[in-house]
Amino acid sequence: MYSQWQKDPTSVHKSWDICFQGVENGAKPGQVYNRPPTLDPEYVDSIIKDTLNVQSLIRAYQIRGHSIAKLDPLGILDADLDSEYPKELKMSTYNLEKDLDKEFQIPSSTYIGGGAKKLPLREIIKRLQDAYCGHIGVEYMFINDPLKVDWLKQQFEEPDKIKFSGAEKRYLLDRLIRSTQFEKFLAKKWPSEKRFGLEGCEVLIPAMKTIIDCCSDDGVDYFAIGMPHRGRLNVLANVCRKPLEKILCQFDPDIEAADEGSGDVKYHLGMCHERVNRVNNKTIKLAVVANPSHLEAVNSVVMGKVRSEQQKRGDREGNTAMCILLHGDAAFSGQGVVYEDMHMSELPAYTIHGTINLVVNNQIGFTTDPRVSRSSPYCTDVAKVVNCPIIHVNADDPECVVYACMVASKWRKKFKTDIVIDLVCYRRNGHNENDNPKFTQPIMYNRIEKTPTVLTKYAEKLINDGTITQQEYEKALDSYERVLEESHKLSKAEIATSPKDWIDSPWDEFFEKKGDKDVLHYPSTGITDDKLKHILTHCSTPPSDIRIHTGVKRILAARQELADKRMVDWAGGEFLAFGSLLMEGIHVRLSGQDVERGTFSHRHHVLHDQFIDKKFRVPLTTLSKDQAKYTVCNSSLSEFGILGFELGFSMNDPNGLVLWEAQFGDFANTAQCMIDQFISSGQNKWVRQNGIVMLLPHGYEGMGPEHSSARLERYLQSCSDDEDVFPTEDNDHFLIEQLHQINWFVCNFTTPANLFHALRRQILLPFRKPLIIMSPKSLLRSPDARSPFDDFIGDSYLQRAIPETGVAAENPDQVKKLIFCSGKIYYELLSQRKSRSLDESIAICRIEQISPFPYDLVKEEILKYPNAQLCWTQEEHKNMGAWQYVRPRMRTVLRKIDKIEEDISYAGRAVSASTAAGSKQRHKQELASLYKMAMML
């Protein structure tokens, strides 16, 4: 090394250079090495401590900076309901006040440096405040994925991130003009009309349009939108571009609907509109889904609709179809279905690969102050349960709002998970335009009266910085005013409106394929003998490549043994219905809690390997090479959200059989909103048919009030048929017409064959109606509840009522009593009749399809037994079950056959507040009494 140094001193380390120079200068041994000065330990500790404090300060801003962000446009409320300045954001916490001008190393955990390696502390703090404490406050540090956290840091921490060109600012201003002036025009023309205007959050329109622009640039061309009332008309006009005259004509008090549909069209019904996105000239389809007044209920419906659309397109990653959901602040934190939907967002059978959620944060719920309407700091905190980033933004800063929407769009594209944008705004008017908010919020509304609109403030900003002139601004206002006035003139020519203009899920292709002959034709629902055998054999044969449970093997073997006798059990009937439709190209989707196995361990559509995790087989997916997709999925423990999801799936595509099964029928109670607002009244209110099937386990087996009744009476009470009208029998098409005219079908079957035909009829009918099935429990394995092959094949149909076929039918004149019943009670009555030797005296007729009521078949049965007294028997209590529905319709039949003086008696349990007895002993006593009444002559 010394020789090398002699040739080139720079070729060795500086320390050796100094050493060798000393040797050359005659330094003695021990004098060559000069010990460097020792650093003061206290000085070193101070540097380390200050550096760590700076890093802690940076992290504090990343975690808590949103708490001091300037989010409230009114400047009177803290968005997180906390006016305290967080201790961890104070300089005094870290004793750094004296070091503001001192430079510190920029840690790798932040992007605020913008390329600089060191910055003065004063500049570090400024950049942190710009990133986290301005008009945007972001929450993301709770996310447990470091890649996502780092990505979000980069989006918000890089300096000068929010930059818009003059052209982009003018475009944003134009969108604000349309949003603001639309509301002003409606207020001017119809000052006393409710419209649930957008005043106070006019920025929502450019926000939504930014999301659509960004996502359509990335390939999305289908957007399903779910939203409440507020701003709905503005969204239809300025986001979806529904013709203005179609909207304005709805304010005409004399307008009449030209077709079916009810409710307030203006802010309830939806629409589906295809248009060209003017920003990128791409064709996009926008569907705003019809919504009830029940806030947040529409969310899961929209999600199901998007999932269906993605499946139809073969879009497995959500690249072409997506969901935008709008929420109110009080509803987002207060409605439990939001939590259900959030938890659904990443489940394999329910994910739609990311929803962009926009919360219109009025900072008030009708008249309720947020400080008494939620326990969490923000209304959006529920989203944290699924690691969803939340961007809070002052809605009076349009550029910050647009930037937040751009980030959200990029997030969805990259990570395919949910994100929330909290638009902190205000509501300039009350809950509606006729409401006086000063009754309850005087301070807030005094401030609102003095607050200029976001349009006024943004226009002033652009005029001051020279982006536009005052004259250009006024010209833009006048231009859109002329558009509105012209549309108003055109709206007066709209003397009638068709609610078909407001359909959110058009089925044009479906109805085009159904001609007049199809509409009047009642379809045969039978299949061939070969297909029946193939399906049963395939689904009863254990797969050779997995080791299934011995108990499941026995179930499969028993099913095959039954098939060898040309008989089918309940599970077999379901297999045949699903399998035959799948082989005919019809997608089948079965969802609900524990549906793969079945709550009562009867179904076993998914066969699990007993030794290898996640190894399983689904026989119905391998029936044939060209079959349709079969989806069977255990759901989360949710009824409200999941039923809504399946409803949305069904609404989007009429060419699929979609079923939701309750674990027990009475558990559907928690989804009552979906049933009442969407399913029973869907066609009448929202002008949209749907064919969803609800399987509701029902039956009194002594299991107590929580597991007995699916509340059959509630579904029958909602039926839209007239109890006093006997259908016209001389019309060859009365069967199909009766089905077409009612709102849904309600059935309580006793045979697997009827289940099979009912499910196939759902698809083969030329229209769609919901089907409610009181599915059995004990009958699933009952040897009596079997159907022969002949009931499934050839020209066979659903038996709406099954007449007496025993000894009593051979001597009808000798029959003293004719019992009508529905469901499993039939088999119990059959046993009782036999044990009491009353086979010749009592006839029993089963009503399988309770609604629409089989008037013609009931009439035939009554006429067949001229000397019989009539009786209705049910296992439910007298104020429940089918009795209240059946009785007036029976009387209508009696009037038809001129037996007005006759009536039908009741045999069953007495009235009760509870659906069933809580003790086995009481249950047995009630049954004994029921049997005695029914068998009494």
UniProtKB/TrEMBL annotation:
Cofactor: Mg(2+); thiamine diphosphate
EC number: 1.2.4.2
Domain Transketolase-like pyrimidine-binding residues, every copy: 568-782
One Gene Ontology biological process: glycolytic process
Keyword terms of this UniProt record: Calcium, Glycolysis, Isopeptide bond, Magnesium, Metal-binding, Mitochondrion, Nucleus, Oxidoreductase, Thiamine pyrophosphate, Transit peptide, Ubl conjugation
Reactions performed catalytically: N(6)-[(R)-lipoyl]-L-lysyl-[protein] + 2-oxoglutarate + H(+) = N(6)-[(R)-S(8)-succinyldihydrolipoyl]-L-lysyl-[protein] + CO2
Compartments (UniProt record): Mitochondrion; Nucleus
Pfam families referenced in this protein's UniProt entry, alphabetically: 2-oxogl_dehyd_N, E1_dh, OxoGdeHyase_C, Transket_pyr
Chain coiled-coil ranges: none
Superkingdom, natural source: Eukaryota
Annotated Gene Ontology cellular component terms: mitochondrion; nucleus; oxoglutarate dehydrogenase complex
Matching InterPro entries: 2-oxogl_dehyd_N, 2oxoglutarate_DH_E1, DH_E1, KGD_C_sf, ODO-1/KGD_C, THDP-binding, Transketolase-like_Pyr-bd
Record SUPFAM superfamilies: Thiamin diphosphate-binding fold (THDP-binding) (SSF52518)
Matches recorded under Gene3D superfamilies: 3.40.50.12470, 3.40.50.970, Multifunctional 2-oxoglutarate metabolism enzyme, C-terminal domain, TPP helical domain
Keyword Transit peptide in record: yes
GO molecular function, one term: metal ion binding
Family: Belongs to the alpha-ketoglutarate dehydrogenase family.
Function of the molecule: The 2-oxoglutarate dehydrogenase complex catalyzes the overall conversion of 2-oxoglutarate to succinyl-CoA and CO(2). It contains multiple copies of three enzymatic components: 2-oxoglutarate dehydrogenase (E1), dihydrolipoamide succinyltransferase (E2) and lipoamide dehydrogenase (E3).
Protein name, as recorded: 2-oxoglutarate dehydrogenase complex component E1
